[in-house]
Specification:
4 helices; Severin; five-stranded mixed sheet; alpha+beta; 22% strand; 133 residues
């Protein structure tokens, strides 16, 4: 993974960012171009290439089918619950990728007041948070 000035490089394709007002130094503070109350909800990140994918899809698989360059399991997948101040990362066989994803999030607008969690605790909390969605 490339670094620029000590920051992990993130790659966004034009197709992914269409419809979003992007803050390049703080990507995770970006919002929908038509409704500034809509922020990134789900995303996929490929720590080796730096590819970051998000759009209005409710399913990671849909995002990756439309925009991804890698196989499904080659991404760390996340869900952002801004009001609850937590980002859940789907567990991944490569623990280092989860740590790199956490670092990327911190470097792109996710403050320390937001928890970034994965593993068994995250799975349990996420099941509870998804009730009613």
């Amino acid at each position: 993974m490339e670094e620029i000035n000590g920051k992990l490089k993130v790659r966004l394709s034009p197709a992914v960012i269409r419809g979003w007002t992007i803050e390049l130094d703080r990507i995770f503070r970006s919002c929908d171009r038509n409704d500034t109350k809509i922020r990134i909800f789900k995303f996929c990140y490929q720590p080796v290439s730096g590819e970051l994918i998000f759009d209005g899809s409710y399913f990671h698989a849909d995002m990756l089918r439309k925009h991804g360059c890698q196989k499904f399991d080659e991404y760390v997948r996340g869900i952002c619950f801004w009001k609850k101040r937590v980002i859940y990362l789907r567990g991944h066989a490569n623990e280092d990728w989860l740590n790199k994803t956490k670092a990327m999030l911190r470097q792109n607008g996710v403050g320390r007041h937001i928890r970034i969690i994965w593993g068994e605790k995250a799975a349990h909390e996420l099941r509870h948070d998804l009730i009613g969605l």
